[in-house]
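thread: overnight batch results

M.L. [08:02]
morning all. the overnight job finished for the chain we discussed friday. pasting input first so we're all looking at the same thing
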Amino acid sequence: KQKMMNLSGFLLPALWGLALGGSPSVQIGGLFPRGADQEYSAFRVGMVQFGTAEFRLTPHIDNLEVANSFAITNCFCSQFSRGVYAIFGFYDKKSVNTITSFCETLHVSFITPSFPADGLNQFVLQMRPDIKGPLISLVEYYKWEKFAYLYDSDRGLSTLQAVLDTAAERKWQVTAINVGNLKDERKDEAYRSLFQDLENKKERRVILDCEQDKVKDIMEQVITIGRHVKGYHYIIANFGFLDGDLSKIQYGGANVSGFQIVDFDDPLVSKFDQRWEALEEKEYPGADSKIRYTSALTYDAVQVMTEAFRFLHKQRIDISRRGNNGDCLANPAVPWAQGVEIERALKQVRVDGLTGNIQFDQYGKRVNYSVNIMELKNSGPVKIGYWNEVDKMVVTKSDLFPNDTMGMENKTVIVTTILEAPYVMLKKNSELFTDNDRYEGYCVDLAAEIAKHCGFKYQLKIVGDGKYGARDAETKIWNGMVGELVYGKADIAVAPLTITLVREEVIDFSKPFMSLGISIMIKKPQKSKPGVFSFLDPLAYEIWMCIVFAYIGVSVVLFLVSRFSPYEWHTEEFEDGQLGASESTNEFGIFNSLWFSLGAFMQQGCDISPRLVCESVLAGGLASSRASWCRSRNL
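M.L. [08:03]
and the structure it wrote out:
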C-alpha cells in the first residue's frame, strides 16, 4: 500500500502537468499516517478539483507512522529539501512538538486536520476547530453536575483542562479517566472493567473524548455489558457523530449526543457527496463509504492551499525557492524568506468548504465556524441544534430526550420470544404457513393485540439459544431473550419471562400479564412446654459429656489423694469408755468424694471439706466450670 501511495505521488504531477499545459509548479508536501486511505483519497480528489491553469499543484507524499518522531524528522527534512511551499499532514501528541519546532525554525507552513495543538504556533494552520466551546455548552444545556470524562491522551489535554477548569467554577464532579494508554490485547477487558467500576459509582453520564475508531471499540463493550439501555447518557466529543455505526445502540434506550461538522443537508456537501459516490473504490480507497470529518477537513485543506497560492499569484508575489532547498538540520538553521508571505496568505483565506465557513485568526486557528448538535433517536441521528461562537448553543428542535417512538409505523418491530407451551407453540401444520402465522399461543395473541393497538408491524423471532436470559458471571455477557434486547437484536420480548432484580438493571418490564402466586410462607411459631431434659439445651451434648467426665475425674482424684495423704486420716475413739485398739478412718471415700464434687459443681455446701490445698484447687476448678456454664446459659 505504501508503494502504491508513493507511486501515486509521482504519477499525479505528470498527469496534472499535461492537463494544465505545463503551468508553473507549486510543490506541496503530504505526510499521511498508515491506514488513512480515505483521507488520502480526499486529498487526491481535492488536488484534481481545485487545480487551476494558473499554477500546478505537485504533491510529494510520504506514508509514515506519525507517532515516530524520528520518521517525522526524516520525512519533514526530505520534503523541505525538495522545495515544498507548504506541507499538509497529521500528527499526534508524540510528534506535534517536533513538527511545530521545524515549522517555526524553517518558516514552513504546516496545514493539518489533527487536533488543535496547545500554544501559539505561527506556521501551523489548524483545519479542525476547537471542540471546547461546543462541548461545555452541551454539558451546561443538559445540566450535568456529575459525569465521567474518558479521554485519549494522544489527542492532547487542552479539552480536558478546559472541562476541569469549568468544573471547578461550576462545582461539577468530574471523574477523568485516560483510555489512551490501554494495551490493545487487553483493551476489551479493560473497557468492561472500567464501565463496571463506573456503574458501581453510579456514573451513568459519560463523555467520550476520543477519535471514532476508539469510540467504536468502547461502544461495542458498552453494548456487551448492557450499559446502552435507558438511564445512560453518552456524549461523543468529536466532530464525526455520523461517521460511526450507531445502529447497534440505536434501539437500546441510552441517550447519545455528539457533534457533526459536515452537514450532509448542505447543497455544497450534497453535490460533493454525489461525486464522491461515483468514484471507483479500487482507485480511491474509502470512497465506498460516506466521507468522514477528517477526510472532509483534508479536502478543505487542499482548497485553502489553492486559494492562498491563487492570491499570491494574482498579487505577483515571488515565492520561488531557487537556492532555498537546503538542509533542515543545518546549524544555524536557514529559514525560508518567503515562508512568512505564504503563512499570511493562508491565514487570509476565507471560503466555504465541506466543514462550513473556513476562516482563521492570526494564530492559525479556526474562527467563525458552526457545528451541528446531534442526538440519536429511534428513528436515527437527528440534528437538534447548532453551536457557533456568537450565539453559542441554539436548539432548533424541542422534542429532545427521552428517546422518542416516532416512526414506529414505518418500522418492523422484532419481537423475541421462546417456545414454551401454552404461551408460544408451533402449529401442527406450521410448515404450511409463514412468518407469524406459524405460531399460536397466549403470547402470540398478546403480541398481535399490542401491535394492533399501537399500530406497528412486527415479526416474531424465536430466541436462538432457547434461554430466557442470564448474565455470565465472568464475561458479564447476557444470553437468551434478555441478551437479544440488550444487544439490539430485538426490540421487545413477549414471553413468560420472570421479573428479577438483575434483569431490571438492563431492561424495562411492563406490568406482568400473569401472576403465579408464588410467595414465601412462614408458619407462625407456637409456644411449647419445656421437656424434661430442656436444661441441656444451653450447651452441646459434647460439652455435657466433658462436664460429666470432669466430675468423675475430680471425684476419683480426690479419693486417691485422700487415700495417700496422712492429713485425711484420723483416729476414731470408742464411746462408753470401752477399751480397745483405736481405728483410723478417712471421710473421703468414693461416695463422699462424689458427693463433695457434686456439691462443688452445684456451688452448694457440704458437711465435709478437704484439708489439702490441692484438693481445694480441684474443687474450685470444678466450681469455676459450673460458673462458666451458668454464664453461657444466661447469654
